[in-house]
Amino acid sequence: MEIKIIGLLSLAFSLIYLSILRLSTAFTPVDNYLINCGSSTNVTVDNRLFTGDLTGPGSVYLSSSGKSISLTNQNPSSNSAPLSRTARVFLSASSYEFNIKKTGTHLVRLYFSPFTTSQSYNLNNANFSVSANGFLLLSNFDIRYTVLKEFILMVNDVNLELSFVPSSQSGFAFVNAIEVFSAPEDLMFQYVAKSIGPNGVEEFKNLSSQILETVHRINVGGSKLTPFNDTLWRIWIPDEDFLVLKSAAKTVSTTHAPNYEKDGANREIAPDNVYMTAQQLNRDNLNADAVFNITWDFPVSSEPARYFIRLHFCDIVSRSLNQLYFNVFINGFAAYKDLDLSALTFNLLASPYYIDFVVGSDNSGVVRISVGPSDLSSSLRKDAILNGVEIMKMVNFYVVSETRPEKRSVWVLVGSVVGGFAFLCLVGLAVLLILRGRRQKQKPKPVESMGWTPLRVYGGSSQSRLSEGTAFPSPGPYGYLGLRIPFGEIQLATSNFDQNLIIGSGGFGMVYKGVLRDTTKVAVKRGVPGSRQGLPEFQSELTVLSKIRHRHLVSLVGYCEEQSEMILVYEFVEKGPLKNHLYGSGLTPLSWKQRLEICIGAARGLHYLHTGSAQGIIHRDIKSANILLDENCVAKVADFGLSRSGPCINETHVSTGVKGSFGYLDPEYFRTQQLTDKSDVYSFGVVLFEVLCARPAVDPLLPREQVNLAEWAIQWQKKGLLEQIIDPFLMGKIKPSSLKKIGETAEKCVAECGVDRPTIGDVLWNLEYALQLQETGRPRLSHEVSDITSSELPGPRVVPQVPSSHVRIEGDDSDGISNITTSRVFSQLMTKEGR
Ligand SMILES: *[C@@H]1O[C@H](CO)[C@@H](O)[C@H](O)[C@H]1NC(C)=O
Ligand SMILES: *[C@@H]1O[C@H](CO)[C@@H](O)[C@H](O)[C@H]1NC(C)=O
Ligand SMILES: *[C@@H]1O[C@H](CO)[C@@H](O)[C@H](O)[C@H]1NC(C)=O
Ligand SMILES: *[C@@H]1O[C@H](CO)[C@@H](O)[C@H](O)[C@H]1NC(C)=O
Ligand SMILES: *[C@@H]1O[C@H](CO)[C@@H](O)[C@H](O)[C@H]1NC(C)=O
């Protein structure tokens, strides 16, 4: 009887105990400063109290030197976050100073949410630097959007001084809210990370001297986690948008709480939810022994930089130990071979584990992470998983890149959510203390005895060295398996090639609209079944397309090559060709600004083709019919059926049979048969005139001197009378300076000789400039213009370069996409002399 009662009691206790574990956070930071800047009131966000800095206790952190004022947003939108309604505006170098009780790793979060006040402060114009104890965190930072910047840094001082220094240009700096709190001791910097690069895997020991800026924090296979869900008030976002090929991955989740174990991860490293979901290989409709990778591309700055990458794992897919062996690749380099989680977690399944890496970025603008089965995996279980990813930039680590990096500015927006965490104190302090005591015991042993420092893991193993990296490694022995789509899947997507879904056709095949099972809308280009004559071209197009991925290029979703079928599957682009929006279809005319933005997008795509990948790709068929618009009128260059890799370093051109479209064809190329990237520039110049004049590049029905648009427009441009032939809809709507810029740019593009034409990078810069002239009417200052060289691109336009892997359809706008993939290019794909 007594025994029973004790049993019940202890059962009850352990239930309470478990629920506490699930619901509460055991972590209370020693240093914890939460400031609602520019405000006299306290604000509670997710149960965390942000104190105002105008009066009361919050004001003591603001140092008295420096001049600052507080501003209140007079017209906050009703759903604006409470912390974004006020800001402290610094008119001279100023700082906050926080007393640090516990030296070590700290998190610093800065909230920026620009607004405009009647006091003639437009916070969008702020341009400033922020430093922490003298280390630059943000330099010449200008903010157009609400952003949350998070930094992780070691503080070994008794104070942390956050300084805000306005640039001479803007004259002021601002911040809406600040968080400074001490991190759990074992969060960071405890161990040596694995440095991944051309020399294989090395140790990276200097982590603690690094300041890290969070760029991505991803809950792979799961949902968005808000500060409310996270032990350290972090934000985790889903991985779906970063998957290079969605159909390669399948989400998996468990309802069981992870088995935390002392040498692995703990709840502060990442919350339960991160470890309870994952992506695994999607084997639906595939043979059990098929081997392929899951790959994610995470956009990062394309300036040379070093990134700290933490990968989270928890084997929630295996039923028994030592079944799962897989490889991890970062930027194409083998980062971890034959990873066996059961061995690392001392024979416990579903036990969270994380591994830290350091990698130098190439100039591709992405960090590419892949996981795939290892040779050691049993034939029954060829799988690979990933549960979470954190990518942080090493702010103070300057890399001297050996390969000259492109000076392209891709700005990565850090997720911007204001938040906090509800500290759910269900049972009181006592239980909390018990928990903390327990956690104390769990603290990892010192590094020397740890099981997973790189030396131990790699000790004696022959780490394979991949050949020195191009941004995109060529396919392995298995080909592009990761992109392969089973024929049955394509039949399903197109209702078995339903005639009603045909959106383009040609002598050699059809283009269908389709919907994959994961609801991705696609365009399916199918060669005539059984006709293998186009095989080399098919493979060649696949090679080009699988190498490229860019916001402004239509991307390949997959391909199928089985049962004598050759099929390419592309993302579906909602609004169809630019051409249809210019003339002949009765669609609403685009504004001048929209047209400029579309041209800028297309130029960006083209610039990426020319310079972004290892060898440079020449499109060869730039025209308004091949520039597609998505639902937001974002331009995407399509149809790489003719494109080919550009000249190698020691060649200056490619000799090839002349291909292209009448009216857009570079006359020099036509004469000499020598293809260079300037041929694309010529065609792009014709597109610019087309956009301006809203008429076809060639119109045989017009009087003879008007038939060829480029020739005709040049005559007017030379006379300085271009405005007389522009689209009547645009009459009076283009600022003369903007028109002049575009006229000059287009004229240079269609210059007779390639050498006289600008590079696409120059064209891009001029288009940006024309847009700026249109918007502000203000030319840039002369010094801003003069130091632009052809290799330099315009300043950052804040475009998050998130790969848009598919496009959703709203209405049935099928007319708009009827030429989405022209038959001619398809026929090129299928003919012998296509390349
Ligand atoms: C804001 O919070 C601080 C710290 O809890 C408190 O001392 C102060 O009185 C509060 N101020 C207001 C205006 O409520
Ligand atoms: C910000 O200020 C710096 C230094 O004065 C300047 O180089 C940069 O162009 C400015 N940025 C913007 C967007 O005005
Ligand atoms: C590591 O840090 C030490 C001291 O901070 C420095 O001397 C050394 O150069 C650093 N090593 C690297 C590879 O950055
Ligand atoms: C995360 O927190 C939100 C409330 O902010 C809640 O609605 C959601 O269900 C939580 N998600 C998970 C996975 O716990
Ligand atoms: C997986 O990706 C790595 C790195 O990009 C590559 O070397 C390997 O061949 C890929 N494996 C397969 C099966 O495609």
Please describe what this structure looks like:
The strands form 9 sheets. Strands 1, 2, 3, 7, 10, 13, 14, 15, 16, 17, 21, 24 and 27 form a 13-stranded mixed beta sheet that branches. A 5-stranded antiparallel beta sheet has the order 28-29-30-32-31, with helices on both faces. The chain is an alpha+beta fold. Helix 9 (592-612) runs antiparallel to helix 14 (760-776) and helix 11 (677-693) packs antiparallel against helix 13. The model is unreliable at 1-25, 398-481, 646-652 and 780-835 (pLDDT under 50). 20% of the residues lie in helices and 24% in strands. The protein has 5 domains: 32-182, Galactose-binding lectin (Jelly Rolls); 193-395, Galactose-binding lectin (Jelly Rolls), CATH 2.60.120.430; 410-444; 445-572, 2-Layer Sandwich (Phosphorylase Kinase, domain 1); 574-835, Transferase(Phosphotransferase), domain 1, CATH 1.10.510.
